[in-house]
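Trying the structure run again after the queue cleared.
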Amino acid sequence: MFRRVEHVMGFPVSLRIDDPEVPEGAVDRMYGWLREADERFSPFRPGSEVSRLDRGEIAPEAVSAGLAEVLAIGERYRTATGGAFDVRMPGRGLDPCAVVKGWSVQRAAGLLTAAGVRRFCLNAGGDVVVAGGTAEAPWRVGVRHPDHADRVCAVLELTDGAVATSGRYERGDHILDARTGRPATGLLAVTVVAPTLTEADTVATAAFALGPDGVAWAAGQPGCEVYAVDAERRVRRTPGVPLAAADAA
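Done. C-alpha cells:
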C-alpha cells in the first residue's frame, strides 16, 4: 500500500494506492497538476488566469481550453438551476471554485489511470474519487454527520466513481443562492455519488444552493445518487445510493 498527503488548493489531498507497484513519476505528476490548477484557476491569486479574466486583462475568447471548459460547466449548471448556482455572483468577482475543485481532482485521477494505476482512492478535502474496487472489496466512504465531526451518518460502498458533499458544518453559510445573493438554507448537507467528481462536486453545490428543492433536482441529474440531510435533520435519499449493508437495513 502506498500513501501520500499534500496540502494543495487550501485543503489536504490524500492518495492511497493499493497496486503492487506505483508507476514512477505518476504521483508527482498528479500533485504537480493540482498545484498548477490552483495557480491558474484560483480567484484568490492576483496573477491567476481567472483573476486576469475578471479584471478584463484577458478577452473571454482568449482564455485557455481548461478555463473555457470550467466556465462552460458553470454555465450549464447555472441554466439547469435557474440561476441558483452561478460562478459569477451579483456584486462579486468571478469565482469558479465550485467547479474547479471537482474538475481538477477528476483530471488528477485521470492522470493516475493513464499512468497505469489501477486501484486507488484520492481524497481532496473530503471529496473522493475511487477506482479499482470490486464487489468483494469495495471502497468504503464515510459521510460525515452534519452535527458531529467525529461521527458518520452513513457509509457508502463503491467500486469506481466519485463522492462529494456540500454542507454548512465546515465553513458555515458559505454557499449562496445566486438568485438572492443570500446563504442557501433548507439543507444541512448534500452528498452526491456520480461517475466523476466533476459531476458529483458541482451537482452537490448546485443542489445545496437550490435548498429543499435541490434534492429532487440532483436526483434527476444523469448518473447521480443523493444522500441529503435537511434542516429538520431528516434524511432524504435516492434508492440507488450505495449504502453499506448495515446502513441500508
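The domain at 2-248 is CATH 3.10.520.10 (T-fold). Worth checking whether this holds up in the mutant runs.
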